[in-house]
Amino acid sequence: MERKFGLAIHGGAGTILKSLMSDELQAQYEEGLEAALNTGYTILEQGGTSVDAVEAAVASLEDFPLFNAGKGAVFNHIGGHEMDAAIMDGSTLAAGAVCGISGAKNPVIVARAVMEHSGHVMLAGEGADEFAVQQKMEMRPDDYFFTQQRYDQWQDALKEDKVQLDHTDKKFGTVGCVALDKAGNLAAATSTGGLTNKKFGRVGDSPVIGAGTYANNDTCAISCTGVGELFIRSVVAHDISCLTEYKGMSLAAAADLVVMGKLVKIGGEGGLIAIDKDGTIAMPFNSEGMYRACRDSSGRKEVLIYK
After folding, report:
1. Can 190 be counted among the known catalytic residues?
2. Which candidate in 15, 39, 49, 174 is catalytic?
């Protein structure tokens, strides 16, 4: 009997209020999710690794301008882009992450290079940019990351001098993917442009291993999206892994306990995608919606935005 395999992706929690979402815009979001989902699934179907699948799916989402990562990354306080990403291999617990990088077309690919070629787990700022150039990563000028929608959000945020969580105050722009391959290996990857108008080199949960990104073959793989500070304080991804490992909880029960219980108690809005070692997928969120999709070898395929 062939092992079950599959993956889930997200394009951020919070989402545009349903009342403000046009059919045309919804179709564009769904198209972006579907393209990334198929990219990752094809790799798994052909016997590729979960690490390859999550990297490719997240890179696809980074290239899609409506999501806050890569090409669609938001503007920081001084009009630049500071992007964060992480990737983790559940078979070895190897991980790589970058924080505050600015010129790389695909931060998730840089994060993988950190995992495989640097001897470190996390590189930040100018050093991470320098590493990306040394590794011959695809770099892009500032204007590549310019989108009118993000620019307008930044201008609005500057006027009010506030940090914005994306196209409303209720959108946590992050992208991510979790996967289980035919060999039974799990992987997770997450990438984000962070917060509009962010200052002081702020870093959220996406590149923090155990907070926004985690994978362990013994348990599950998780990628989070939400109010990063609260996901860090709750060590969300690792907490869910521990609940399944030490308490014997199902993935769905553990994810619900954290997302609908522990996070809500401290005002942590957002959600996550998760897949366990048996190929069970969970995609809970406590916000208005979450751009999400999943597909597995038993025939399940979903592309969803709202509850």
Report:
1. no
2. 174
Q: What whole-number distance in Å separates Cα of residue 113 and Cα of residue 28?
A: 31
Measure CA of the first residue to CA of the last residue in the chain; give whole Å.
34
Q: What is the pLDDT of residue 248?
A: 98
Query: Measured between alpha carbons, how far is 175 from 58 in angstroms, rounded to an integer?
Result: 7
Architecture in CATH of 6-301:
4-Layer Sandwich (3.60)
- Write the burial class of residue 291 (CB in 10 Å: 0-12 exposed, 13-18 middle, 19+ buried): buried
Proportion of the chain above pLDDT 90, given as a percent = 79
Give which of 156, 159, 188, 160 is closest to 174, Cα–Cα: 188
Instruction: Spell out the alpha helix ranges (H) of the chain.
Output: 23-45, 50-62, 107-117, 125-134, 148-160, 228-233, 236-246, 251-256, 263-265
93: left (phi over 0), alpha (psi -120 to 50) or beta: left
Q: Which residue, among 169, 147, 145, has the nearest Cα to 157 in the 3D structure?
A: 169
Q: What does the pLDDT look like over 101-121, one tens digit per residue?
A: 999 999 999 999 999 999 999
Q: What is the 3-state secondary structure (H, E, C) of 157-207?
A: HHHHCCCECCCCCCCECEEEEEEECCCCCEEEEEEECCCECCCCCCCCCCC
pLDDT of residue 172: 64
CA angle 250, 253, 256 (to 5 degrees): 145
Residues 114, 67: Cα–Cα separation, whole Å? 23
Euclidean distance between CA atoms 36 and 56, whole angstroms: 8
Q: What is the spatial distance between Cα 273 and Cα 224, in angstroms, rounded to a whole number? A: 7
Give the per-residue pLDDT at 166.
Answer: 43
What pTM, to 2 d.p., does this model score? 0.95
Report domain extents, the chain.
6-301
